[in-house]
Amino acid sequence: MYTQGLDQAGKSDPAGAETKAQLDAFQARVDAEEKIEAKDWMPEAYRRTLIRQISQHAHSEIIGMQPEGNWLTRAPTLKRKAILLAKVQDEAGHGLYLYGAAETLGISRDRMVADLLSGKAKYSSIFNYPTLTWADIGAIGWLVDGAAIMNQIPLCRCSYGPYSRAMVRICKEESFHQRQGYEIMLTLCRGTDEQKAMAQDALNRFWWPSLMMFGPSDAASKHSAQSMAWKIKRFSNDELRQKFIDVTVPQAEYLGLKVPDDKLRFDEETGHYEHSDIDWQEFFDVIAGNGPCNEQRMAKRRKAHDDGAWVREAARAHAAKRAKAAA
Amino acid sequence: MTPDAALIRYVTRLGDNALVLGQRMIELVAASPELEEELANANFALDYIGQARMLYTHAGEREGQGRNEDDVAFLRAEHEYRNLLLVEQPNGHFGDSTVRAVLFESFYVLLLDALTRCDDEGLAGIAARAVKEVRYHLKHSSQWLVRLGDGTEESHVRAQQSLNDLWRFTGEMFADDEVDRIVRDEFDGPDLNVIAGQWRQAVAAIVGAATLEMPADGWMASGGKSGRHTEHFGYLLADLQYMQRVYPGAAW
Ligand SMILES: [Fe+2]
Ligand SMILES: [Fe+2]
Hints:
Chain A is mainly α.
């Protein structure tokens, strides 16, 4: 995981050095579905939009390790422990891979990490919710990785080559995570009453935050048009959200769980589910730092970074000694 | 003790080492000094959990009373776990967990190598697989110890302190008991006296490369192999067993 349709577009060409001919030629390449590569000319705003989106995505992978890591020591069986550990390791790998993709655009990983730690950079709001029971691990795999896939499958065709290639690889693993999460839910729902109640409670708490992962509604999404034109984005936030709901509601029914939305109903005419309005105030609160776990997640990340400072320094000093000895 | 009973205990003990160290490493997830290390730590912890699963399954099968890997892993009392005290020690800082890894893995890799030649086919097979993993872990942890020892003044001091602090848990690895002796004699298992010498040489080489000093052999702590643990262990078990204890008999 996980991009979120925050659509923070980069500022366009501050120096005004980009000519119309350059911009037109660029757009023509994008329209022809050519991949833009790191060394190619690109508008400054395109570069900045991508840096912001890819680094936000990378940060989300890293912060996302925390809510799931919360159940690693307490996983109920050795097999589940191993599967969850492998998943968390995958997410670290996604982070590494995405930082690498962002670096091709001319920003260093250190800079991106500094922006995360200072609070300047954002990460997906979903990771600011707590994992209170084992069922939350199932719900995250099923819903959060599921929503991530919806978001990211179109990104496999993103106009920027390094990002699109990263997405192809990452999506394969996310779909694996999604199935594992659903399998946890299925096991719980076929288990004892206590286990079923645990699964229902997890769905109740993660349903709405999962829908918010697709970002603000199209009406409130200012920068979507430009991202669409650049083929960074292929579908609107609401389109992807609808697709997710349409796929997920029948899965919940199969589990015997109730989606926590009284207005949810299938519209035969449109072929889509109708749903209640989303509490956007909660979304903007969490994005602004006021979610249940924002402080905790950032504090843990900062502590890991600070505690590791002497270690990274030692590694640098040792490498310098080696280089000197070899010279 | 019958040879079979000794072997089952021996294999379970190996499983306990792997599980407990794996569990400690899992506590480090999302707390590593850098992202590459995050991946390595998770990867190695996964190896240890995998080894514990194979070892417990093997012990359960030899025992023949229908216990599976989870029964063995989760449903024993504290004194029935027989891991080395070294692997249950808290993570501390990165120097502590690195030294713990170096000291244990240099022992474990020798033990596994010897076990690949033992008379119990199942155990020999598991050892053959595990020894490759642990060789790689040891390479990684010893490289880190060298970086820390031969890094900055601060890291040098910290690494030396970690080494001094954890040294007292190394004696237990080589103090053989009835179980070790029966497995050595009846199943052509490892001779801990031989391994002790090899271990000392291997560790001295790493410590030297790290520009650190070998600590003096003072008083050695022991008890893990007979089920008397340090105070830290109960908390590790409380986490590990939580779900199985709160929801007995449920399938997950
Ligand atoms: Fe991911
Ligand atoms: Fe994932």
